[in-house]
Design goal:
Structural class: alpha/beta
CATH architecture of the largest domain: 3-Layer(aba) Sandwich
Largest sheet: 7 strands, mixed
Helix content: 25-40%
CATH superfamily of the largest domain: Vaccinia Virus protein VP39
Strand order of the largest sheet: 3-2-1-4-6-5-7
CATH class of the largest domain: Alpha Beta
Number of domains: 3
Number of helices: 21
Radius of gyration: 27 Å
Shape: globular
Distance between the termini: 50 Å
Strand content: 15-25%
Length: 585
Amino acid sequence: MDKLQDKKVFVVMPAYNAAKTLAETYKMIPKDAVDEIVLVDDFSQDATVEIAKTLPIKVIKHGRNRGYGGNQKTCYNYALQNNADIIVMLHPDNQYDPGIIRQLILPIREGKNDVVFASRFIYDPVRGGPLQGGMPLYKYIFNRILTFAENKWLGTHFSEFHTGYRAYSAEILKKIPYWTNSEDFVFDNEIVLQLLNVKARFKEIPVETRYFIDASSINFVRSCQYGLGIFIALLKYSFFKAKLIKFTQFDFYEDIREQQISEGYNIIEECPNCGSKERHIEIHGLPKWEGIIYKCESCKLSYYDRKTDKIAEVYECFYNSSGERFNVIAESLIAGFRKRRAKFIEKRVKESASRKKILDIGTDRGFLLNYFKKKGWDVSGTQINQNAIRHIKEKYDITVYDKELPDLKLKEDAYDVITAFHVLEHLRDPFTYIKEIYRLLKPCGLFIFEVPHFEHRYRLFYGSRWLALDIPYHFYHFDMHFLKKYLEMNGFEIVKSSGFSWEFTPPNVVQSWLNLWHTRQNILIKHLLPLKFSILLRKGVFYKELLLVLIGLPVILYQIAALGFKGPGDNMRVIAKKKRLEVIE
């Protein structure tokens, strides 16, 4: 078997509803030229997965539709994780000729090129071009115009920018943060811009294509959206090259994994919940601090691949000496939200038999505990920030524990309500916490908590720049599927859950939007809002951020209105009741 001079070759096929063409595409792949064939199914609605499992190939299935770009990210992640040297991306719709794989990878095998495109527009005098292969005329014209415009804009000479049949060397893919790209079709063009930025060596070879009813294709409206996406990507690249705006998509760093290990980060090699080593990459961290968010194939938990023993140091300055984080205006708004939160809890607890004792895990400024103290409740909380602990004691005369909950050895069946608002994702071991919470609650007691919703559509738009991910400070990333299953296994039943939050969603969208334009993380929340308002108004960066918000206001308002209210929100508030059952170990 010809193994291409010890080069390990992977063919990756991003698939969506490819049941009718997959088997024929596979049949035409020269098996002696490749080491492994991988199909990533993007939540197809037909029998793609069932057919794929009858073939001798690796099959990966997405739990939701991530889009064409998101599918490619999983393809390349898998290939690189499994030590591929050359990666061929081939659509399983039988539109491109798989028989030319040898020619496609030859320039990479010989070390002459890093990237090889199979172009439909390098004409073969015998077979003809894409029009002879059945390409619709409007697609032909659209492709020609876009390719001409991109070549003029970038100073390149590609015959085609938009082929779906490509070969990459693993080394060149390792140099670019392809995971920061769109999860839509424009991914193909964004990766070319990144490759140009690292001066990759390109080559094109001709390929015969066939257009027929079962071949995948995007309609005219989606084609127009694709064209607009390309224009935006070109603008971003031009702004970056002109040193006007920094984009992590193009301004990236070398891997600092070894450095972070030396700084105290522990690399997680298996699922912290079930111990499985079967996992796939969901999100790459921003290259400035690296890291990966994995999803366990077994229990479906999403988790960051490293933890730090310095968590106390991270939150040491989280609150100032007054027990606050932000300026007086922001703190006033937060006080109002905390009052609404307390009333929400009180309303739910009135429905149960008792309402006397509450424990707030990770309590912040003391608003919530003081509200219930005034109502005659027995209140307590936990917190690791000493400024917040002192502030709550001095202002409200409430004692807050500064130890981890499992270490407190509190009385069993003691609490009517235990709350944890945006805490579980920060903990080293939230699973031990949940089991301890079950032990501490009275029968039918309520566990009320909030966490960001990892599977929200904001992640498709913002990727690793999404504030809700807060890499690297959020160790765990939850979705309702995992939470429901895990809570039920540990003696809880979910009584109610809700998504949209005025306290969480608008700031989440605004800061995520700003993160798209910077290599620094969370400038608004970390660097501007803590300033006194009088000082804030004298900061030039404040007006720069304000301008970016105004520019993006239509996008921001659309996302809050259309994506925030519709469907599962970006913030999960869950009310779970302790059942009269023993914890299932």
